[in-house]
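> run fold Thioesterase
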Amino acid sequence: MTAAPAPRIRLEGGAALLCTRRTTGMIPVHLFCIPYAGGSAASYYKWKSRLSDRLRLHPLEMAGRGLKSKQPFYESLDHAATELCEEVIRTIGQEEEYILFGHSMGSLLAFELYYKLRSAGYKEPVHLFVSGGKAPHFDRRPIVHDKPLEEFREYVLGYDEASRVVFEDEQLLKYFEPVLRSDFKLVELYRFSAKARRVGCPMTVFTGTRDQSLTREEVLAWKEHGGCGVRIHSVDGGHFFINDHSDSIIQQINEAASPLDIG
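> ok
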């Protein structure tokens, strides 16, 4: 059998680190995906057919939508991360293999979920994927979650023009406005607290080439939080490139979950 190449994590600028967090054999790897603001677990269901056979997809639902539509919204992002952590703990054991993925708001939640799982005694993830979000230590302003509807609407449309249909349909607006405001509140009121150590597994940061909501500095700063190599992967598109170019993302996830042949 030909040995698989070592999992080399490349950093922009030519530096590289060697991380050996890859797994051996064909044991399952659990993939936990966290949605963006206003999104739901359903956005990840269509990934299943394109994931490798060893990946087990677990889209994590946020309170106030989908199967959790009757649950009250979270009080804070930390509250949300705690609830999601408990859900993961109910799903897998401490020594099982897993990957975390989150887009936009989900990138912050995936980052905080990583630390909560490690504090709960869980092993390092195989990989941490953060997508479409600024590094956690950056300021989250402006504050718009409590602004009048028209001002809030214009800000949301700055992220995604496709959301216009929500604001032009009375029934859709009735459902999505409180969800969006709650999610924006979680992100806007989030305050980063320094961690005792950096993330101990390989990290990949996805960013849209035309995402006007992020600066290059805010994306590259994720490197400050990785202790095992951080790769920046640019994807064609705006903030919601995840909807139009998921193939590139899924390919990276499949590669991260591929076994390392050591014998």
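The helical segments are 77-91, 105-119, 149-159, 164-167, 170-188, 216-220, 241-244, 246-257.
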